[in-house]
Amino acid sequence: xxxxxxxxxxxxxxxxxxxxxxxxxxxxxxxxxxxxxxxxxxxxxxxxxxxxxxxxxxxxxxxxxxxxxxxxxxxxxxxxxxxxxxxxxxxxxxxxxxxxxxxxxxxxxxxxxxxxxxxxxxxxxxxxxxxxxxxxxxxxxxxxxxxxxxxxxxxxxxxxxxxxxxxxxxxxxxxxxxxxxxxxxxxxxxxxxxxxxxxxxxxxxxxxxxxxxxxxxxxxxxxxxxxxxxxxxxxxxxxxxxxxxxxxxxxxxxxxxxxxxxxxxxxxxxxxxxxxxxxxxxxxxxxxxxxxxxxxxxxxxxxxxxxxxxxxxxxxxxxxxxxxxxxxxxxxxxxxxxxxxxxxxxxxxxxxxxxxxxxxxxxxxxxxxxxxxxxxxxxxxxxxxxxxxxxxxxxxxxxxxxxxxxxxxxxxxxxxxxxxxxxxxxxxxxxxxxx
Amino acid sequence: xxxxxxxxxxxxxxxxxxxxxxxxxxxxxxxxxxxxxxxxxxxxxxxxxxxxxxxxxxxxxxxxxxxxxxxxxxxxxxxxxxxxxxxxxxxxxxxxxxxxxxxxxxxxxxxxxxxxxxxxxxxxxxxxxxxxxxxxxxxxxxxxxxxxxxxxxxxxxxxxxxxxxxxxxxxxxxxxxxxxxxxxxxxxxxxxxxxxxxxxxxxxxxxxxxxxxxxxxxxxxxxxxxxxxxx
Lengths: 435, 231
Ligand code: SF4
Ligand code: SF4
Ligand code: SF4
Known about the structure:
Largest interface: A-B, 56 and 51 residues
Mean pLDDT of chain B: 87
CATH class of the largest domain in chain B: Alpha Beta
Shape of chain A: globular
Helix content of chain A: 40-55%
Strand content of chain A: 15-25%
Bound molecules: iron/sulfur cluster
Mean pLDDT of chain A: 90
CATH superfamily of the largest domain in chain B: NADH:ubiquinone oxidoreductase-like, 20kDa subunit
Radius of gyration of chain B: 18 Å
Distance between the termini of chain A: 35 Å
CATH topology of chain A: Cytochrome-c3 Hydrogenase, chain B
Order of helices and strands of chain B: EHHEEHEHHEHHHH
Structural class of chain B: alpha/beta
Number of helices of chain B: 9
Strand order of the largest sheet of chain B: 2-1-3-4-5
CATH architecture of the largest domain in chain B: 3-Layer(aba) Sandwich
CATH topology of the largest domain in chain B: Rossmann fold
Number of strands of chain B: 5
Low-confidence stretches of chain B: none
CATH superfamily of chain A: Cytochrome-c3 Hydrogenase, chain B
CATH class of chain A: Mainly Alpha
Structural class of chain A: alpha+beta
Largest sheet of chain A: 4 strands, antiparallel
Number of helices of chain A: 14
Oligomer: heterodimer
């Protein structure tokens, strides 16, 4: 029996280990251990005022901090009945797009692309591919510029508040940002061509079961009220607790999620499989050029699905800037917050997949229960299943080759291990159930 | 310092925000990578040779045995160890929850860059000093000073609770400049004038407990020392 063990997977965020047991051509066992330490968010939020929740919760993870911060604001607003003006929703969407541009470009170019081109990291890759690395960094920087402008800081936004913002961007700032976004979109043309020429290793497997939130309206997007699975199952977001099942893991600090015992995948590839037909413009062209097989049987294509979403995010951000430039922004007074008890559940799509936030408050607006489920935790069972498929297809290879392929597959999920481990699930009566 | 200092970048239990700030120096990143000998940066790179280090940057709090092992190992190999981020400097949220401790509880820390996350400008200045062979200078002033220089309207005076009087500067009063109160993410300032800060807060009608609870979010440890309690 051969055992392949990777004790600290590189080029992912946080600490994760992988152990695969092979018996001849059969993969006997796969364990993905997400062993990032516990920070105790569940103890911190309990009993704290609703005003502090977004700032605490966004510290779960830096890369998708904007997603955590905005989703937490939305969940609190829902719980306390705080009205959110359309302008605020539009600017929040823009901030989300900035997060997608930053996060996807970081993952695709700096973390995943070195695997395709045979380098240990972006520093080595830059020596031979300076032009594409320079363009990639420029795109990533623009994603951060969007977040700086709307969120007040690229990591852990400070400008977002209930119903609105501390300060609105000026027209000239939006104009400047639009110009940067347009340059990036042009640069993506050549990058899509380059990536379309790279080959993705194949392996035998079943159609992957996907989950995502159906975007509100007719277009593509990251906000909505319905959970959708690729086998046709559907559920309203506030019934997420019965839409899939979470179980404690014996060997990992994160929980595993399955639906009737089946692993499922969330993230860019899930969204492209479920809603890719809603894409238009250059994003639709990129999807055609990159030839992602849909329905997908190969999770490695998540890298290319992120490229399609990168094009989408740039196009949509430009559209929003144009709308702001045409209509202007109104300085609206922030809505009055009436402190009361309540419960709010919101799910949004983040770069790595669906994020669930659910909070309950007492009459004084203090937290009595909190539940946060992150994309990487949702993906854990799916990673293990796809590693099994990949290992079975390549069982004859050397250990080094297998190790490289396994790491590459874990990386394709773009795992964010800080996120997955810091599951928050508390109730005032029952004490916390997991850290 | 040698022509190419050997650098290692490590994350203990963290959100990776401070490591990400380095990766977010898009304009400077390639220049920095050329100027240093990067021996370890697992988040961004495979094949990390490790070995002796001139400077180690360490993010995050110590929450588990493996964090402590990493920290001690890095300390034993590094000439200079720099704590990056409020979690590493003060313990941050893990300290508040009782699950983590700052680096200085376990090893000698030669320099601390606070912030949640750290500010890019401060990080770049620190790297520039290190490349010249100096330790960077500490910033002794609180957020309030930067806020006053920027001529912002004072939120405390407008009746909002703001932690600027007690919080370490260096962010150029980021939040008050957006009409948002400082919530102390950079941790306690070096030598805050607690008594007068407390008087200011009380004068504006805030209970000491309220301020304490806020400041405890990021640097509760700072307010445990004798005589420095805000309350
Ligand atoms: S200090 Fe802030 S940014 Fe740095 S690791 Fe801690 S929570 Fe993340
Ligand atoms: S707004 Fe806050 S940081 Fe600025 S001067 Fe007033 S108390 Fe100080
Ligand atoms: S103003 Fe306060 S909360 Fe805002 S970034 Fe500076 S230290 Fe952090």
